[in-house]
Each structure stands twice: as structure tokens, then as C-alpha cells.
Design goal:
This protein has 15 helices and eleven strands. It is an alpha+beta fold. Helix 2 packs antiparallel against helix 5, helix 4 packs antiparallel against helix 5 and helix 12 packs antiparallel against helix 14.
Length: 415
């Protein structure tokens, strides 16, 4: 993929990767015609991973700050989706329909949401999406349908308090939505190393994001984790395999995010969209120019940044591999050639082949689909962020105890 091409979700390598590497906002205005949302094909990789998370671990994704009302922003987002992606989404103010999924959510005058199967599903048993949504509290069914219809994760940024007020984030990149909701942008980014500029600019960033213009930024890393879902609870604390030196680069993955801000200035809010992609490193860095650019960026990282990004232990082998590729020496073996088409415009519908299933073994996709009984309605109080009581059998005991303690401390009301 040429360094100037955009990925299927709109990640811009040339704009994102450079030296010296700095932890900074890096905002740029979105081009006219650029889109925020990428429709998902039924059964696509993003959809399967999101479905697994929302079925088995909804509290890890769905969070709302106490007292915050996401309704106006969600209605605006649903209307935007219908205008931007009419082939995939319809909204008339009461009914939201994911046209490719054969599933709709009807919202009545009291705000209660009913899930309706409008057509047979196109993967699995055919009703996975509807079953997942029915197991969620009413207040989360419209957000759940948006999350499963589009590749992007969603959050709401509120200018009051410069905070992250609400999330539907099933594919986080090594962070926990329950730990971030209700906190200011500066607080949410406090753990980042060498991020003084980002923290000082947090209030200004929120002011820009909630103003009249559309903005985007890009984030990237090289990681040993192959899944889109990278919640800390479900990531191996040993971030690289013991045999990384012998299997490089086939144990390494290129993880990127295109983050967008859909402004809602009359609400003094913005919908924050996060488009995550994970590609085998050898399939992502395919030209000498890309390799040289990435090599210079990694070489300029401070020790603190390398530690935070879990790159310190693989820095030397990563730089050696990038040096070789920058010199024009193609790596042999799987991942040597890209299996993904280069596209020149952001926002095209994400086809099944954009991230082939063969790139990630089945075992890396969390517990495929959990039946309705796995998440009883009683475990998810109406209009509250879901609890984790349904996760007991699905996660290691020590991780589950920690997650349940976190959830108990951070239940959110969205009344």
C-alpha cells in the first residue's frame, strides 16, 4: 500500500507517521466529502468481535457518566448516519434500521426501545444481532445497533467539563472505557508519557471538537496482540511472545486508529469515532518509503514512550527489520505481500476481504457469540451501564474479580 493511500477505514500513513515522534493532538480538518462511518458487511471481522464483546462483556464497552443524557447526541448521530450512509442505515426519528443486518430498533415516545428483526440475518443462525440487542437494557439498544452496523467505535465528548461523557467502545486499544468515562480529557490522558503538550491542549482540543468544524487525528503502534478488541482485561500481560526474535515479523501487528470528531455545536458536544484496524506488520509496511518513515519514528521515541507502547523489548529487532525493508529487501514468508487493496478515499464500505479471516486465527476472536441466557436482563439494570455479573464463566477468576470490582465502583446512570 503506497504511503499516500488511505486504509479502508481512512488511516493516513503519510500524515500519521513521522519523526521525531511526539505525543501530541495532531488534529487536522477533515476534507470535504470525507466520511465518519464505515458500513460493515454482515459477519465481517469487526462485527464478529464487537458482537462477542457486546454479548459477553457489555460493561467493558457501554458506559455513561452519572446524570448525562446521551439522547440528543444519539439522535443526531442516527440522522447523520442515514444521510452519510443511506445504503446501510435508515432513521425516521423513531425507527433506526441497519439495512445490511435486517435489524431495527423502534424507540417509543417514552424512550423505550424494541428490537425488530426485519429480514433474515446473513451469517450464523441469522438472529445474532437481534439476540445481542435484546439482552441489553432498552437505553443501550440504539447505541448497540449503531456499533454493530459500523466499524467505528463511538464516544460522546461534552464541552461541559471537557470530558468523555459516554462510550460504546468494544475495540479499545489497551485502555478501559469504565476508567475513562466522566473524566476530563486531561485526566484521561494523564498516564501517557511525554504528553505534556497533549494534556495542556486538552481543553482547547475539546473546544475545537465541539465547535462547528470537523476534525480527525491518527494513532498507530506495533503490537504483539492480533485482535481488534484489546481491552486490558483480555490482553496477555506478556505483550510479546518468548520466541519473538525467531518468528519476527510474523508475531508483530500494525495497529492503527483513525479518530474523527462529528461536531454537535448546538449541544456543545461531539461524537468521537474511532476506526481500529489490525494488520500483520509484513502486510502493512510494504514499501521502502514506509519502512524508512516508520524506522525514523520508532528510533526517535524516548525510553518512556517505548515502555508505554510495549516496544522497548522489541525495539532493536523492529528497527533491524525496518532497515532491511527500507533497503528494499522483502521479507519472506506469510505477510510479505499485502492482501488488502489500497484505496484512495476514506470511508468506503469495508469489504470482507479488507481484513481476511486467515490473518487472525479463530481462537483470537472472543467467544464468538453468546446466547441470550449468558447475559440475563436482570444483570443489566434499565438505563444503567451494564454490570459484569454475566462474565463469571467467561474470564479468568483473577481478571473477573478485578473487573467486577471496577464495574461496581463505576456503574453509570443515563437517565
Amino acid at each position: 500500500m503506497p504511503a499516500t493511500a488511505l486504509s479502508p477505514l481512512g488511516f493516513d500513513f503519510a500524515a500519521a507517521v513521522g519523526a521525531p515522534f511526539r505525543m501530541q493532538p495532531g488534529l487536522r480538518r477533515m476534507a470535504g466529502g470525507a466520511t465518519h462511518l464505515t458500513p460493515l458487511a454482515p459477519g465481517s471481522r469487526h462485527q464478529r468481535e464487537k458482537l462477542a464483546v457486546l454479548s459477553a462483556f457489555p460493561a467493558l464497552a457501554l458506559q455513561c457518566a452519572p446524570g448525562f443524557d446521551p439522547g440528543p447526541a444519539l439522535a443526531a448521530l442516527a440522522a447523520h448516519a442515514a444521510a452519510e450512509r443511506p445504503e446501510a442505515w435508515a432513521w425516521d426519528g423513531r425507527r433506526a434500521e441497519a439495512l445490511r443486518l435486517g435489524t431495527a430498533v423502534d424507540v417509543d415516545a417514552r424512550g423505550q426501545a424494541e428490537v425488530v428483526q426485519t429480514a433474515p440475518g446473513r451469517f450464523g443462525h441469522g438472529d445474532e444481532v437481534a439476540r445481542c440487542l435484546r439482552a441489553l437494557p432498552s437505553a443501550w439498544r440504539l447505541p448497540g445497533l449503531l456499533a454493530l452496523a459500523f466499524a467505528e467505535d463511538l464516544a460522546i465528548v461534552d464541552a461541559d467539563g471537557s470530558r468523555i461523557a459516554w462510550t460504546a467502545v468494544a475495540l479499545p486499544s489497551h485502555w478501559s472505557p469504565p476508567d475513562k468515562v466522566g473524566r476530563s480529557f486531561a485526566e484521561a490522558h494523564a498516564p501517557l508519557p511525554d504528553a505534556e503538550l497533549l494534556q495542556r491542549a486538552a481543553a482547547a482540543l475539546v473546544h475545537l471538537a465541539t465547535g462547528p468544524e470537523r476534525w480527525e487525528r491518527f494513532v498507530w503502534n506495533v503490537t504483539g496482540h492480533p485482535r481488534l478488541h484489546a481491552h486490558p482485561r483480555h490482553v496477555d500481560p506478556q505483550r510479546w511472545p518468548a520466541d519473538a526474535a525467531a518468528t519476527w515479523p510474523h508475531c508483530a501487528w500494525w495497529r492503527t486508529e483513525r479518530q474523527g470528531f462529528l461536531p454537535l455545536p448546538t449541544l456543545r458536544q461531539a461524537v468521537f469515532t474511532i476506526g481500529v484496524e489490525v494488520t500483520p506488520l509484513g502486510a502493512a509496511i510494504v514499501t521502502p518509503a514506509q519502512a524508512a518513515r516508520l524506522r525514523d519514528a520508532v528510533a526517535s521515541m524516548t525510553p518512556a514512550v517505548l515502555d508505554y507502547r510495549a516496544l522497548a523489548e522489541v525495539r532493536d529487532m523492529l528497527l533491524a527489520w525496518l532497515d532491511s525493508r527500507a533497503a528494499g529487501h522483502a521479507a519472506a514468508g506469510p505477510g510479505a505481500a499485502s492482501t488488502r487493496p489500497a484505496i484512495g478515499a476514506a470511508g468506503a464500505a469495508l469489504p470482507d476481504v479488507a481484513m481476511p479471516d486467515a490473518a487472525v486465527p479463530d481462537a483470537t476472536v472472543p467467544d464468538a457469540v453468546v446466547p441470550d441466557a449468558a447475559v440475563p436482563d436482570a444483570a443489566l439494570p434499565e438505563a444503567a451501564a451494564p454490570d459484569t455479573t454475566a462474565d463469571d464463566a467467561a474470564a479468568p477468576a483473577e481478571a473477573d474479580r478485578a473487573a467486577r470490582a471496577s464495574a461496581d465502583a463505576s456503574r453509570r446512570s443515563c437517565r
